[in-house]
Write a structure and sequence with these properties.
By secondary structure, the chain is of the alpha+beta class. It has six helices and four strands; from the N terminus they run αααβββααβα. It has one domain.
Length: 149
């Protein structure tokens, strides 16, 4: 039984990635999300999708990476908080993610993670290079706002 849970989670991750790749393809072709791509995203993410588009419209997106390119961290700055995300990792510190994704398993992700995917598709991330020491300091402090200059 324990072995089936990770396998089902991997399947869900693959379905999410496929829908996001289709949304990216659609966006790259027309500079907007097509109806089919939006329908596929809506089927997967339901009420989180509209909230993710609100994050996309209202937040600031930063990607911090080391000069070597080996480490990359994304941050979303909203009016009420900042969220540190690892590229390709479905995890967020927000209450919705903790309760609805991890505990209740009622949702696949939160508006911040999905918003970051959409922002990446739309090219909304500003990039900032950090030294390895700065990256370490940022991750230890979990306050990326200190590194925006």
């Amino acid at each position: 039984m324990a072995q089936g849970v990770p396998n089902s989670r991997l399947l869900v991750d693959e379905v999410m990635k496929k829908a996001l790749r289709e949304a990216e393809r659609s966006y790259k072709e027309t500079n907007e999300f097509g109806v089919d791509a939006l329908n596929a995203l809506n089927q997967l993410f339901e009420n989180v999708l509209m909230k993710a588009f609100q994050v996309l419209d209202n937040a600031k997106f930063m990607e911090f990476e080391t000069r070597s390119g080996l480490r990359s961290v994304r941050s979303i700055f909203t009016s009420d908080d900042q969220y540190l995300l690892l590229d390709g990792v479905n995890h967020c510190k927000c209450e919705y993610f903790i309760f609805n994704v991890l505990q209740q398993q009622e949702s696949l992700t939160c508006k911040h993670v999905l918003g970051a995917h959409l922002a990446s598709i739309c090219g909304k991330f500003e990039r900032k290079l950090l030294t390895d020491g700065q990256m370490t300091d940022m991750l230890n402090s979990a306050t990326p706002a200190l590194f925006i200059t």
